[in-house]
Amino acid sequence: MRFLASFVRFVDGLNDWIGRGVAWLVIPMVVITFLVATLRYGFSIGWVSMQESYMWLYGIIFMVGAGYTLLHGDMCASMCSIVRHRHATRHGSICSGRCF
Q1: In angstroms, rounded to a whole number, what is the distance separating the alpha carbons of residues 90 and 63?
Q2: Coil, strand or helix at 68
Q3: Range with the poorest average pLDDT among 35-39, 64-68, 77-81
Q4: CA 6 to CA 3: how far, in whole Å?
Q5: pLDDT, tens digit, for every residue of 29-41?
């Protein structure tokens, strides 16, 4: 049992470290998105590879950052608040407890 607890702490620490590193990918994604929009609509210049790069960055941020978000328990709360806000008047409260 001690081994399992230490393994879980190791995985949680690794997940926390990876999540904090992936958060820094938001900055290049915003810069690339700004450049794509500026070059495309301001100068009529566009590169498909540049457009795809921010899509790949978004995918990496979303998929790898989901584990970090679940580790800290924020994903369920934000998703439930979105669902509750959109459907509270018609259907009542859909999410009433923890999702996971």
Answers
A1: 32
A2: helix
A3: 77-81
A4: 5
A5: 999 999 999 999 9
| Separation between Cα atoms, residue 54 and residue 50, nearest integer Å | 7
pTM, two decimal places: 0.61
Residue 59: both structure tokens together: 């995918």
Tell me the residue type at 52: E
Angle (CA) 16-17-22 rounded to 5° is 95
Here the tokens at position 14 are 């690794």
Q: Tell which residue, 60, 65, 55, has the closest CA to residue 32.
A: 55
- Phi then psi dihedrals of residue 98, to 5 deg: -75, 140
Q: Half-sphere exposure of 75 toward its Cβ, with a 13 Å CA cutoff?
A: 13
Cα-Cα-Cα-Cα dihedral sign, residues 22, 28, 32, 33: positive
Contact predicate 53/32, CB 8 Å: yes
